[in-house]
Write a structure and sequence with these properties.
single chain; three-stranded antiparallel β-sheet; binds flavin-adenine dinucleotide; 12 strands; FAD/NAD(P)-binding domain; D-Amino Acid Oxidase, Chain A, domain 2; 9 helices
Length: 296
């Protein structure tokens, strides 16, 4: 990807320590001592990044920190040969196994030489302590799988006894503050039930790049961010909230569907195309028109 970007435009191995607005300029400081002055900043520094606080901290302090999505996962990678020995041909395809309050996702990675395992545990408690993976005793982990199919249990030796909590940003009241805006997980980190988090970040990038491409004077950057926020935030936040809600369907505990697989399938077949086949070109057009009206 680097080769697609003009030489000298991208700098790696830098850590941003602060972003401040000084008049119409943004001053960005880095931990290596570098300080740069720019017309606008896009904070795509993920769920634990620093830019979210800079956008929301003063106006919406309660929305700065991500919230626990009441799920933690155990993860592992098994050699495909072993996964096939235990699960047969199921290992060669992307699969989701469901149990009450639990789920097991498995799919081939590394050009089919390994199987990625993510086992989901619904958690009605709050996550205590740091927002980070926590090591547990192997016996404690295995006890959570006691009623799983024995083939899946056969893969537990490759699963790490680490609880990875899932956090999200269900409410983000704005994606920008002056000349600083958020993109990707810093704006709308999502629980993964719809496998749509990264896709939403790419949609952000599409709209923002199109509208920034229309900026002919630095004073229009504010308008570009305003348009981006108006177009992207409703859709991306809806995906975050929906992902959380439908997660329970995949754990067979959704109040409307319970363990009725037909209802769960019908609902998914109705909902997911709205993410996959959404009219992005329509949003680009809307963004360009709104920007034109705001800067006329
Ligand atoms: C278990 C799980 C499964 C998922 N499955 C899917 C899926 O199937 N499909 C899908 O579309 N999405 C999925 N997602 C979501 C997806 O991983 C995220 O939405 C996506 O990675 C977010 O990309 P991002 O670039 O916004 O943030 P990140 O990937 O978090 O990248 C942020 C980057 O910013 C850097 N950074 C942070 N702070 C600073 C700083 N101060 N200075 C410089 N750099 C900084 C970080 O080091 C990092 O490299 C899943 C997420 C989880 C947790």
């Amino acid at each position: 990807m680097k080769s697609l970007i003009p030489e000298g435009t991208v700098k790696f191995n830098k850590r941003c320590s602060s972003v401040e607005q000084h008049g119409s300029k943004m001053v960005v400081s880095f931990t290596d001592g570098d300080v740069i002055e720019v017309d606008g900043v896009i904070g795509c520094d993920g769920i634990k990044g620093i830019t979210r606080r800079m956008v929301l901290g003063e106006r919406y302090p309660e929305e700065v920190k991500s919230k626990y999505a009441h799920t933690y996962v155990y993860r592992g990678i098994a050699p495909m040969e072993d996964a096939k020995r235990v699960c047969g041909t199921y290992a060669e395809d992307a699969r989701w196994w469901m149990m009450k309050g639990k789920g097991w996702a498995m799919y081939p990675i590394s050009r089919g030489t390994e199987a990625n395992i993510v086992a989901f545990m619904q958690d009605t408690d709050e996550w205590k302590g740091e927002q980070a993976a926590r090591e547990v005793e192997r016996e404690e982990m295995e006890a959570e799988f006691v009623d799983f199919d024995k083939r899946l249990k056969g893969l537990l030796p490759w699963v790490k006894p680490m609880k990875w909590p899932l956090f999200h940003h269900p409410d983000t009241p704005t994606y920008y503050n002056g000349r600083l805006c958020l993109l990707g997980d810093s704006a709308h980190a999502s629980s993964p039930s719809q496998a749509a988090g990264a896709g939403q970040g790419l949609e952000d990038a599409l709209i923002l790049s199109k509208v920034l491409g229309l900026v002919s004077d630095p004073c229009q950057v504010d308008a570009a961010f305003q348009v981006y926020d108006a177009i992207r935030r409703p859709r991306a936040q809806a995906v975050v909230r929906e992902s959380y809600e439908v997660g329970t369907a995949y754990y067979l505990v959704h109040p409307d569907f319970g363990d009725d697989l037909q209802k769960i399938t019908d609902e998914a077949n109705n909902r997911l195309p709205k993410i996959w086949w959404y009219d992005l070109e329509g949003d680009v057009k809307k963004a360009e028109e709104s920007f034109g009206e705001l800067t006329r």
